[in-house]
Specification:
Number of strands: 2
Strand content: under 5%
Protein name: Transposase DDE domain-containing protein
Radius of gyration: 17 Å
Shape: extended
Number of domains: 1
Helix content: 55-70%
Largest sheet: 2 strands, antiparallel
């Protein structure tokens, strides 16, 4: 950072960009247990599926903030937990139109 000159706005954008990636990886690690899964066959495909599911959780979370699920408050962890036990809720995730 000290080897080049730039504006405060440029530093701000770089920091925000970095933390977007870190937050995404945090959710992959904590919600999807990405570090615990070892895919010997098609690891790239498994990573895509985990990312797809995480994105569905995030879209649902963004549209339903402040509401409640049958199991509790709408959080990313509750969305995942509800998907595990409620096939109708999981189908609802896939059927919603996200804009």
């Amino acid at each position: 950072i000290a080897n080049f000159r730039t504006t405060a706005e440029d530093f701000y954008n770089k920091i925000i960009s970095h933390w977007r990636v870190e937050t995404y990886h945090y959710h992959l690690d904590m919600l999807m247990d990405e570090d615990e899964h070892i895919a010997y066959k098609e690891p790239y495909s498994m990573a895509i599926l985990r990312s797809f599911a995480l994105n569905l959780f995030q879209l649902y979370h963004n549209e339903n903030k402040g509401k409640k699920l049958p199991t509790g408050k709408v959080t990313m962890a509750e969305i995942k937990r509800t998907c595990k036990y409620d096939d109708n809720f999981t189908a609802e995730l896939f059927e919603q139109e996200y804009v």
